[in-house]
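hey so u asked for the seq, here:
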Amino acid sequence: MTTRRGFLALAGGATAALLGACSSREPSSGKKPGTKVPDVVLADSEQGLVVLGGARPATHGKRAAASADGRVVFAVDGESLMRFDPADGISTRSTTLGGGWLPRTVSRIACALSRTPAAVQPAARKTTSLLVTVGGEKRQYDLPGVVEPDAFTTDNTGLFVLEWLPATAPDHYRVRLLDLATGEVGPLLTRDKTAVPPGAEEEMRGEGRQAVLSPDEQVLYTLYTHQPGHRHTRDLLSGRPGNAHAFVHVLHLTERWAYCLDLPHPFGEGPPAAHAIAASADGRELAVFDASSGNIAYAGTAALAIAGVVTAPKGGNASLAYTPDGTRVLAGAGRTISALDHTGTLTASWSVPADVRGLAVSPDGQRVYCGGDNEVLWLDATKAGDTKAGDTKAGDAKAGDAKAGDAKAGDAKAGDAKGVGVAKAGEAAKDGDAAATVLGRATVNGLITLRTVR
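ran it, structure tokens below
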């Protein structure tokens, strides 16, 4: 987790066991004793990182951080740093730190820690201390100014950082690269792999809505909104004025270059919470949802250009996820989840009892996970049910509670294992916001959002 991005991680496998030494109390699951959340789910709450599902779900709190893909969790226990696989809960490494350090940015084998928690806008300071562990080896870096860790390079020899300016009253930042061997901080490369000259580094405001990691873990895409007058490196080099109000910052973690993909008007003009980003499972496409204007923009990741914009549901905060086969997206707007194809055609919809706070689809496509008001719901992805999601009482969310025939609007085709987006043509759209068939729910007090999809 970093200062500029929110990442739900669905870490496959239903047998997670997390080390008790780094865990606090278990989140409450609204199911009968002996049943569990079907998948391993990571979420952010006001109490910090929460893991749902498996043998020992736990609230790890603010002294823990997960990798962007949800495969690894680092947690501080006393003066030690523990590394966990959230799928099986086995601790694979422990490093002695000393007190006062908080995990901030994580890769598979590396963790960057600071002495200050993540903040939308950090406080002024003269220097920043970062502690970086890679494969159990650690080194402290004392850097001038206000510096926040952001992401590791794929080979873990560099750490991308946000250098906030001015250090005396930070209100914007530039992305730079800390060389972990030399301790030097320098500029990134351009997309054609040439060094960015002095004076041409992009500077952003701290309105990064959220970020997604490419499936091959080589590229990080961060959505920025509310950036009036922003000038890209290409604008600074050419002398052109900047006019992008929203864009996707593309950071190549292997080749170490950055590029900004501009989004068309009116993206970025609505509230930051009304925007969301998702990447397809094959890594070939990005989608950006603007619930304030009711639009979804699609872009190819090879060309890094907008391929088209389609209409979408409007209103409330935005959440977005691709179906596993990439043929549809799930768009959460307010209290409605809509399945849409690439033409913007509605193929299914569900209503839920509270504003959606993050969406994810299980790896087999059978369950849709939805963040809500102090809880996480998992819904039947193959059905848009006729019983209100709110009618299922907390603590009584049995998968078999719906009566036969209650969930007709979104019945899946016989034998179709894709799950999401296979409702019979026209039925879900005809019924409008059909209520979801709730399979279960888990209490997460102070839920902020679910994270990425595994």
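DSSP finds two helices and 34 strands in the chain. The two ends are 17 Å apart (CA to CA).
lmk if thats what u needed
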